[in-house]
Amino acid sequence: MDTQLKKGLLDICVLAELKSQDSYGYQIIKDLSPIIEISESTLYPILKRLEERDCLTTYSLEHDGRLRRYYKITQTGKEKIEEFCQEWKTISDVINFIRGVK
Asked: How far is CA 80 from CA 9, 26, 77, in A?
């Protein structure tokens, strides 16, 4: 898969994963692995970038004596998912045209 395309898809996949419930890094990787390949070294810069863009917020909770950082999607993050879905519909229409599907 093209690197730039995958980068954009990963951002949206991370946001979509957080749409149903807050989560932490390892769990996000585990949940996304069946859908798209993602590593820790890829995920954490994405989370940082999404936080800087106000698409998510963070908080910490203690788990087994250690603090675990959780990520929570914001309204801006939910709007990004909606924007992506609208754009994807347009892309899908173009792909169908190219393939001769009506």
From this structure: 12, 23, 5
